[in-house]
């Protein structure tokens, strides 16, 4: 069995052209990815949650919190912010800096586009501009 293995590997070595040198950034031809083949063919399955999805789901879950002697159901995100605020108000410097950093980050982020509704005057502009755009595009394709 060892003789057969040695013969096969010798034959493989002989089939590779002599001018090809294996080295840094030059893997052996036999171990390279074939054209159209991915390096990770199975990959992450579609629809599997990533970190952002998991985190937003977890922070959105409701928990029961006692506040002022009465029980209330709030999201974990809200409870975390309330806890951070309570520690900051008691004089915890780390909690204060974390809260202020979070606030600064929220303020500087651009607002998310809620619905993307189009105003009436914007619709009128689009109706006027649409035919001109189509006309210019057909001229370019005709050239």
Describe this structure in words.
- By secondary structure, this protein is mainly α.
- It has a domain at 59-108.
- Helices cover 54% and strands 8% of the residues.
- The protein contains five helices and two strands; from the N terminus they run H-H-E-E-H-H-H.
- A two-stranded antiparallel sheet has the order 1-2.
- The radius of gyration is 31 Å and the shape is flat.
The chain-level structural class is: mainly alpha
Tell how many strands the DSSP assignment holds.
2
Distance between the termini: 68 Å
Mean pLDDT: 81
The stretches of 5 or more residues where confidence is low (pLDDT under 50) are none
So what's the overall shape?
flat
SSE run? HHEEHHH
Proportion of helical residues:
40-55%
Sketch the major β-sheet: 2 strands, antiparallel
| Lateral strand order in the biggest sheet | 1-2
Topology summary:
Elements: H1 2-15, H2 51-60, E1 62-67, E2 70-75, H3 76-89, H4 93-108, H5 120-142
Antiparallel strand pairs: 1-2
Helix pairs in contact: 3-4
Kindly list the characteristics that best describe this protein:
mainly alpha; single chain
Q: Briefly, what is this?
A:
This protein has a domain at 59-108.
